[in-house]
Amino acid sequence: MSVEELQNLRDNIKGLISVHSFLSCSKNRNTALIYSLNRSGRPSAEPVLFEIDIDTSIDTKLYADIGQYSSYQTENEILFTVGTIFEIIEVKRQMDVGFWIIKLLLSKQIDEDMKELTAYFENEIGKNPTLLTLAEYLTRMGDYDTARGYYMILLDKVKLLGNKSDIAKLYNQVGQLYYLTGDYKRALKYYEKAINISTIDYRNLGVTHDNIGMVNGAMGKYEEALNHYVKSLDIWKKILPPNHPQIGNQYNRIGQTHNQRGDYDIALENYKNALEIQMVALPPNHPNLAESFINIDLVYFGKKEYISALSYHEKALAIQSKSLPSDHPDIGSNYNNIGRDHYCLGNFTKATHYYGKALNVFLKALPPFHPSIALIYQNIGKLYYKTKDYKQSLENYKKAMRIQETTLPAQHPDTNRTHKYLKELSRLVKDSTSSQDDEELNNISNDIKMVNINEHQNTLEMQYQQTITHGTKLLDADRDNQLLLNVCKSNIDDLNNTRSKRIKHRFFSSKSKKK
């Protein structure tokens, strides 16, 4: 948890907080501690442990014991629903092992802003939710790691699902998970599996064409994307009522592709069709409404009407702030869009602020080589370029290129744009520095793929040492739990071995370079 979030809780003892996503907890304290002390990728965050008191005599549907469905059944997992409210009882620091304990009491209330949205989701899921629907909604709320665990259970038992329709749905959802985490090749692999067994199941066929369209769009293949979106829309119109939300979603997808191609009027027509359906079919705080506002904003942005664009983005953020967790990738994307609006309006200080907020969300919520992170680095680099801070601009474009070369096709528009800026920035930085720096700058220009390995290793070594230190404290605190003791000891040994190998690699690499 960030220092600011922790301080907000400390300042609001006896106050109420609500969760805007599913909240996964464990009845096993030692299991929770392992997750609490793992600060991978967030070295400045404060480790916290939530202790939640529940009055089991109260009849409530705010939580469920899902331990029997978990991929790690020893975790004794409890899942709290969207909109659950807790009273803050106490926040104190556990000095001996270096983490904070936050004591909460489950409230019988539910967030009024979330009640209608929760009812909508309950109706959509049905009275008898399955592991498949649970994983799907965890994915929607951005809890990708938990969702992946449930999908892996289902993939191991795919033959037990019973019919081809359920299998196709599973393949589609696993593909969607990979798409959202930036692994487009694996996403297409599962979508192709789904389409091969969905020839007579029109609903799954419509979903699969839509999903394949999204991957192609992300890879810059706009014609292929549009082809699949139109196929999907034709299917939905045949099997669904005219005001069904899925038809609205499809108009949005088609609009997005036309917008990417610069066909703004056609894009806006499709977006308005989508919004007209969604205003009737969805509750006012539904995330898809926010998506439609964002899409309309992007048209105005493309037409250089930046004040109108900013207005729609702010409407979208107001909905997202009520319906999504604060670190959801969609909120990060919207921060990026708002930053870009301010950049185009010349409000560089505000642009920097929103780009920073977007980057913080993405680094927390997404894998380290996700294309969305590269996009933020591009935008920050462009901002520094505009303000003539060419060294900072160059550093951010280098970070973007490292990611893009890993995840995007060679001819993707974003990759080409980054190459262009790197070439120009290398020249500008070289011209503005002394001859002493010429050799280093020539290396940047000649090999823009170069990664700063030593910096990366230093970061990893720091993270390994933090993990070893926390793990050792945990072992000392609980010598009676032999299973946990063995697992932690094994993990610490592995981390030490890995750290040693990295130090050796760094030493020999340095010697080789000096020769």
UniProtKB/TrEMBL annotation:
TPR repeats mapped onto the chain: 168-201, 248-281, 374-407
Listed SMART domains: TPR
InterPro entries documented for this protein: TPR-like_helical_dom_sf (IPR011990), TPR_rpt (IPR019734)
Keyword Secreted: no
SUPFAM superfamilies, per database record: ADP-ribosylation, HCP-like
Keyword terms, alphabetized: Repeat, TPR repeat
Gene3D superfamilies in UniProt: Tetratricopeptide repeat domain, Toxin ADP-ribosyltransferase, Chain A, domain 1
Regions annotated as coiled coil: none
PANTHER family registered for this protein in UniProt: AAA+ ATPASE DOMAIN-CONTAINING PROTEIN, TETRATRICOPEPTIDE REPEAT PROTEIN (AFU_ORTHOLOGUE AFUA_6G03870)
Name recorded for this polypeptide: Kinesin light chain
